[in-house]
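Schema walk-through. Below, the input block comes first and the output block second. Nothing else is stored per chain. Lengths vary across the set, and this one has 537 residues.
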Amino acid sequence: MTISRRSALKLGMAAGAALSIPSIVRAQTASADPRAVRMAMHDHLTAFDPIFSNTDVTTDHAAAIYDTLFALDSKLTPQPQMVDKWSLSEDKKTYIFELRDGLAWHDGSPVRAQDCVASIRRWASADAGGQLIMSRATDVSKKDDKTFTIVLKEPLAVLPDILASLNGYYLGIMREKDAERPATEQVTANIGSGPFKFNQELARPGASFTYDRNAAYVPRKEPSDGYAGGMVVNVDRVVWEQVSDPQTALSALQNGEIDFIEYPAPDLYPAIEGDSNLELQILNQSGQDYCLRMNHLQKPFDNVKARQAVLNLIDQEAYMRVIAPDPKYAHPVKSIFGNTTLYSNDENTEWYKKGGNPEKAKQLFQEAGYAGEKVIILQDATTPSYRDASQLLAKQLRDIGVNAELAPSDWGGIVARRVNKGPVESGGWSMFMTSDSDTACGDPTSEVFMNAGGDKAWYGWPKNAEYEALRAKWVEVETVDERKALARQMQKIWWDFVGDIRLCQEIRPTARRKGLTGLIGMPTNRVVMWNMRKVQT
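--- output ---
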């Protein structure tokens, strides 16, 4: 989520902080320890609450410290995780979930059913799939300390799938007292029941964050399979080093000061491939779809003609050259359902042209009544792909007479600003870029990009009642063919009102030292830290 990138400044992070000299010294000292792994993630961790923010790095943090009710296996089938057993009533309206033994919070207190109820309710206030559940629920409540129920007005067969979904917001189970906070207020305790503990004492905002193995965690007995099964931790500590400069990160990887780079810069791939101690590895085989979100509430993009203008302006090949210069790692993406899902289609994609269509874009801006209003592009200046692609967008807009202005910051700055629904004169915004897993686009129920519910939609707040009526049918139809037909109808409407714009698909390899093994690959952006092993090389 990306997508899709998504987080807020609440703990005073330094914008664009680079790996400091003291941090490198610490890494050199610790690198000899085979039980400690040091990782350079693609974003700075600035929000710690996966409901307050659903950025990839926040979700990775949450996956380490918070456990989930269900998890997806390697075939993307939901399997019980915190849940021991569950049942469905004969009328298919009442789900009963019983928690497994051995669940405890990092502070030593037991996990209870009421914690799960509060967490579900908070998650559902932000997540599209959760909203669907709550729209049909008459009751979500505890039965006893280990059992809770969800009672529905009408059957919803995909409910376990939604609870396990990798899309939208991460349903990490929190303590009741934390989950009682509104979703708009960040939980700061960082106390979960998952396989890692967040080490608050070693937190160094702007430099590093440390996760320690939770010795009290009881994994499931089943073998690890995707994100399901036993979440076994094979190292004692994981440290996220915040490294802003790509070359600095590569040097640290080559020298053994770090073990993993989530997204190395594409121009460094040859150096990585040429080093016998290093390896590129693609964890997310589905790739990443880049997306341009426009603010539908404010000028000029409150006018559909202005949004259509940008749709026609975009030259995806140009964005591919900027984001992923090696053509084997980049592809155009014309379907809102991505390139790799069952529901990808070519409905209403006549707007797509190599090189874009700047003349038509200019004409459509005129028809929209564009009068030189300032267009503010929120630019992630710390991530090269977003930084450079935003510069390209600004240039393309200026070339057709649009008063485009970049607002550079780190990702946390973008997340803090994008909540503002006001005009640019009041600190609002016009456009920003994000991304999410291509696989996520096959699930319009939970994928944040595909919600056009206005205030209930994701940032940009697109609104279209006809599209939403079709999206609501997604869980009602029973066959793949019916969903394929529905997908075509939805896509036709989407590209007419232009809910957002896709820029390209990128296949992103990670880089690691060969002594770091056991990384779990799934068609999602998540990087999980259990199952990893480290040996000296």
